[in-house]
UniProtKB/TrEMBL annotation:
Name of the protein in its database record: Methyltransferase domain-containing protein
Top-level lineage group: Bacteria
InterPro entries on file: SAM-dependent_MTases_sf
CDD domains linked: AdoMet_MTases
Source species of the chain: Nonomuraea salmonea
């Protein structure tokens, strides 16, 4: 920031001022203040305008007031209107200042030839106090912006020599701005998010305490992180540390997008003027279930600004006469709320990964997986899924993507194939179709099928006809899974699908027939490790008992090659994929050891033979992903 600007004016009539002038200027020079001395300047014709311009540019006025000259009243009055600090220096024994001067600060100095030590000490202490208040960088910055606003509004008035509608429009805008300041008080800022970048840039002038922030890249409020390269320096110049929140799915299929973020973070750290700017990366879900944003339910995203010791910022939803859900930037001075915000910030930082300049996508992913123990298979976990620890369920959607190659593609193919089978059966029978999902888990497959069912049924709804799909039942033995699936499926429960805590096959009524029975990553569980031919025939027997005439089975799962050599090679390729995508060798080995029902899964030819015994034939087969272990199989009933 520019040095303190000082306006000096001395009376020509007071004698013995040379020594006090030297003392004042020496004190100001020692503090690197920049002085405008009226006595040393050429005087233009329009002195009044010159005085006003110089006072507007000044941070403090130091005036000699011994003679109470008329100019003094104008200078003091104009400065007070701009809230510029005024210091009046008077020679001892001279006339008192009039009361209507508003009691500006003033100190006496001795006459010619006297000892100036006391005056110098008092003057120095006065400047010290002012530097903590009216001459602080924050006060000066705000006053200068007010001065710029005043000048620009004055230029508007100058450009209109008669009444004009633009004057009223400007007046309304200023009134709205004043209302924002007035409605929320001097300790808060409430304004449009578009102003945040400009507001934040001014913090470069403040160096009293640490600045910490959370930038939520999953929310579209701060779009400048994505498309404004000029913001990088403005938004990081004084930051001590910042946490960037991303969608965890970027680690599993979002390499291009996350790599763009990494390039931005690298540029920020490289161009930062200070070495103590740390960047952390976390996902939007890493705050933990107990962490709460200090703005509560009104908070927009997880954005947060922390300015120690008592200032926080973020975004809130507002419906103050404008559009519902309007987003506004809130910055508040509140020590209690600051402490709440700090706890929220630290809860996320505890689970965040520190970003380093040499990080690329895979290095960052590997550290994130290890930090949060994603993909860790607890060797104590048994086949009783519902008895596994909370760590299994809370991070299941992330665990599964660390374990299963092309998991999202597997779900997409399965959902599309189920949809295809529904259409095939409906077209053949012209009667509503009933479907049963085995092992819905966290609801990924369920949530992928429901939108398609809505689209299919919409025309029938408009015509008042029966829906093509009249019943969607989904079962899972783990109640913890139901809690997760409910969040994902949401309002569709009851209206479209029923999620039931049941076990296949004992809890599934064989008196109710379904046209399509399907599931993802569940067949191997039902068959068990290294299944016998009897177990395979038993599986298809249970399916056939519940399958309607002409129905089909759709399963996306793990299927081993038909030879021992082929299976070993496929499992080795699977392990190589897990390690190559960030999982540690320890975690990969623990997963394979803990899931023998997948490693020793039945081959497709053995499944075909077992299905044939129940009048089912393989209608479709598709490999999913780069390894040979994962496939989509469709079995249809012969009619």
């Amino acid at each position: 920031m520019e040095p303190v600007q000082v306006f000096l004016a001395w009376s020509m009539e007071t004698k013995g001022t040379d020594e006090v002038i030297r003392a004042v200027k020496a004190a100001l020079e020692a503090r690197s203040y920049k002085c405008y001395d009226w006595k040393e300047q050429p005087h233009p014709r329009n002195i009044g305008i010159e005085v006003q311009e110089q006072i507007r540019r000044s941070d403090i006025l130091i005036l000699e007031g011994s003679t109470v000259r008329p100019n003094l009243a104008f200078e003091v009055g104009f400065a007070r209107a701009l809230d510029v600090p005024v210091v009046v220096i008077k020679q001892e024994g001279t006339k008192e200042l009039p009361e209507d001067f508003g009691a500006p600060r003033y100190i006496n100095y001795p006459g010619e030839g006297a000892d100036f030590a006391r005056f110098e000490d008092e003057f120095g202490r006065l400047l010290d106090r002012l530097e903590q208040g009216g001459l602080s960088r924050g006060h000066r910055a705000l006053r200068r912006r007010l001065g710029v606003l005043h000048e620009r509004m004055q230029s508007v008035l100058t450009q209109h020599d008669a009444d004009h509608p633009l004057l009223y429009l400007r007046s309304g805008w200023l009134d709205a701005l004043a209302s924002e300041v007035g409605n929320f008080g001097p300790l808060n800022i409430v304004t449009d998010p578009d102003y945040y970048s400009r507001c934040f840039a001014e913090l470069r002038q403040w160096d009293e305490g640490p600045i910490k922030a959370i930038a939520d890249l999953t929310d579209n409020t701060e779009t400048f992180w994505l498309n404004d390269l000029e913001h990088l320096e403005r938004m990081s110049a004084r930051v001590t540390e910042r946490i960037f929140l991303i969608d965890w799915k970027l680690f599993f299929g979002g390499e291009a997008e996350l790599s763009r973020h990494i390039a931005m973070w690298r540029q920020q750290k490289s161009s930062h003027t200070s070495s103590d700017y740390d960047i952390y990366v976390a996902t939007i879900d890493d705050a933990g279930p107990t962490a709460r944003h200090p703005f509560g339910e009104l908070a927009v995203g997880a954005h947060l600004l922390l300015l120690a010791p008592d200032c926080i910022g973020g975004y809130k939803q507002h419906s103050d006469g404008g559009p519902t859900g309007r987003r506004m930037l809130h910055i508040e001075r509140d020590r209690h709320r600051f402490n709440l915000a700090l706890r929220y910030y630290n809860a996320i930082k505890q689970r965040a990964v520190r970003f380093e300049l040499d990080h690329d996508f895979f290095m960052l992913k590997r550290e994130w997986l290890q930090k949060l123990e994603i993909g860790r298979w607890d060797r104590r976990w048994t086949r009783a899924t519902e008895q596994r620890s909370p760590a299994y369920f809370e991070r299941y959607d992330q665990h599964i993507r660390a374990w299963i190659p092309a998991y999202d593609q597997l779900i997409q193919y399965c959902a599309a194939t189920v949809a295809s089978e529904i259409l095939r059966i409906y077209q053949a029978s012209d009667t509503p179709v009933s479907i049963l999902e085995i092992g819905y888990g966290t609801g990924s497959l369920t949530a992928s099928i429901i939108p398609w069912i809505h689209t299919l049924c919409e025309p029938f709804d408009q015509l008042g006809q029966d829906y093509p799909v009249d019943r969607y039942r989904a079962i899972d033995r783990a109640s913890q899974m139901r809690e997760l699936a409910v969040r994902k499926v949401g309002d569709e429960l009851g209206r479209v699908v029923r999620l039931l805590n049941k076990t296949a096959w004992e809890d599934v009524d064989d008196g109710v027939k379904h046209n399509v029975i399907f599931g993802s990553l569940v067949m191997h569980f039902l068959l068990g490790p290294d299944p016998t031919d009897e177990a395979l025939r038993g599986f298809f027997h249970e399916c056939a008992r519940r399958l309607a005439v002409g129905g089909s089975l759709v399963f996306a799962d793990c299927f081993a090659p038909d030879t021992d050599e082929g299976r070993e090679a496929a499992v080795a390729a699977w392990r190589s994929w897990m390690v190559g995508n960030g999982l540690s060798e320890e975690y990969a080995d623990a997963y394979l050891e803990g899931n023998p029902d997948m490693v020793t899964a039945a081959s497709v030819p053995r499944l075909e033979a077992a299905a044939e015994a129940h009048n089912l034939y393989k209608a479709r087969e598709k490999q999913v992903g780069s390894t040979q272990m994962f496939r989509l199989l469709v079995f249809q009933q012969r009619v």
